[in-house]
Amino acid sequence: MTSRPLLIANATLVDPVAGSEARGSLLIKDGLIADLGPNLNTAPDGAETLDARGKVLAPGLVDARAFLGEPGSEHRESIASGSQAAAAGGVTTVVCTPETNPAIDDPAIVDYLIRRARDTAVVNVHTAAAITKGLRGEEMTEIGLLKQAGAVCFTDGAKTISNARVFLRALTYARDYGALIVHHTEDPNLAGNGVMNSGEYASRLGLGGRPIEAETIVLERDARLVRMTGSRYHAAIITNRDSLEIARRAKDQGLPFSCGTSINHLSFNETDIGDYRTYFKLAPPLRSEEERLALAEALADGLIDIVVSDHNPQDVEQKRQPFAEAGDGALGIETMLSAGLRLVHAGHLGLPKLFRAMSTRPAELLGLPGGRLEKGQPADLVLFDPDEPWVLDKKTLRSKSKNTPFDEARLQGRVFRTFVAGKTVYEYA
């Protein structure tokens, strides 16, 4: 059965492609955007009408990097719980990383996850597949078969492929299949046992540091291998000005090179670790405030292509440990939009550019529908008030885990309704 058409009237429509914000209405029919614009004032016969009362209506977020637990780590997160958290945050499409048990390195596992998502998720869930078997960085997976099974990109998650010959071979095969390689750029030997950004602050805390060079050395190598192969390449999370310069040079050379950063790296810096707060222990680590501001500037001018949640739930036992021994990672998917709006309120960029990085551009890179306010596009939408203040209580999060760095943070911007294929999957009570 098809649902009744829905007219969302009196909304502020944000179009990331046109770079515009304008008052208007949008009509949803059969799961698609049927019409939109300032002159769309009357609902067709039999349609429902929702008065947005000036709230912002934009394409739903496309999160290209999130850990959803299945298979093997359902105690940390599941596709069902992760998709509920995504919907509450205005995220309508999620790409899960392959760091599961077993790793997503076989077409049968990809097929299982697609069916599992179809049965349990309330948002669109796609899967990334591993570049190397078991994420060990030694032997390539069957990229062609995995892509045919439905994998939308290839990554070893938070593990770096140190062997340049293996990575070159992966880029070459990916090029032949038109596949996107997504790489975590941090030399594990140079990072060593470091647990936070190298520098004065790490020394004052008595913690081992992970230098910026661990990131830039791998990124520079990767850029040169991309130049050799012409393969599509995406640096998963870059965190500093030197990496931004490498990315700029690669793009200026016309290479098929893109890069992203995480919402947590745009929101926090190393001093937020404070008195050894393990929710701020991330991989790659939080950098200085100067580096954070450089990331915000690069996002505004389009050098950084996308923003990801890097959603990485950890159970209590992993985070309730001394800082050096605690697990890396933090939640991000449910707070992704509200945190991004901090950049808007601070004047770093406007709403259309934020949504281009969080919705339109990731959809383009991954070859997925959505990310646009256009006729015929899927009605994957978020309706939110960018100005409404609220305080986050981690107990209310939909994620199974609660390791959020935003606990008790004052946020501005609340999601009121999320639509997937025109169906309401989240509504703020």
UniProtKB/TrEMBL annotation:
<keyword id="KW-0862">Zinc</keyword>
<feature type="binding site">
    <location>
        <position position="184"/>
    </location>
    <ligand>
        <name>Zn(2+) 2</name>
    </ligand>
</feature>
<feature type="active site">
    <location>
        <position position="310"/>
    </location>
</feature>
<dbReference type="GO" id="GO:0004151">
    <property type="term" value="F:dihydroorotase activity"/>
</dbReference>
<dbReference type="InterPro" id="IPR013108">
    <property type="entry name" value="Amidohydro_3"/>
</dbReference>
<feature type="domain" description="Amidohydrolase 3">
    <location>
        <begin position="351"/>
        <end position="426"/>
    </location>
</feature>
<dbReference type="InterPro" id="IPR050138">
    <property type="entry name" value="DHOase/Allantoinase_Hydrolase"/>
</dbReference>
<keyword id="KW-0378">Hydrolase</keyword>
<dbReference type="Pfam" id="PF12890">
    <property type="entry name" value="DHOase"/>
</dbReference>
<dbReference type="InterPro" id="IPR011059">
    <property type="entry name" value="Metal-dep_hydrolase_composite"/>
</dbReference>
<comment type="pathway">
    <text>Pyrimidine metabolism; UMP biosynthesis via de novo pathway; (S)-dihydroorotate from bicarbonate: step 3/3.</text>
</comment>
<comment type="function">
    <text>Catalyzes the reversible cyclization of carbamoyl aspartate to dihydroorotate.</text>
</comment>
<dbReference type="InterPro" id="IPR004722">
    <property type="entry name" value="DHOase"/>
</dbReference>
<feature type="domain" description="Dihydroorotase catalytic">
    <location>
        <begin position="54"/>
        <end position="242"/>
    </location>
</feature>
<protein>
    <recommendedName>
        <fullName>Dihydroorotase</fullName>
        <ecNumber>3.5.2.3</ecNumber>
    </recommendedName>
</protein>
<keyword id="KW-0479">Metal-binding</keyword>
<dbReference type="Pfam" id="PF07969">
    <property type="entry name" value="Amidohydro_3"/>
</dbReference>
<dbReference type="InterPro" id="IPR024403">
    <property type="entry name" value="DHOase_cat"/>
</dbReference>
<dbReference type="InterPro" id="IPR032466">
    <property type="entry name" value="Metal_Hydrolase"/>
</dbReference>
<feature type="binding site">
    <location>
        <position position="310"/>
    </location>
    <ligand>
        <name>Zn(2+) 1</name>
    </ligand>
</feature>
<keyword id="KW-0665">Pyrimidine biosynthesis</keyword>
<comment type="similarity">
    <text>Belongs to the metallo-dependent hydrolases superfamily. DHOase family. Class I DHOase subfamily.</text>
</comment>
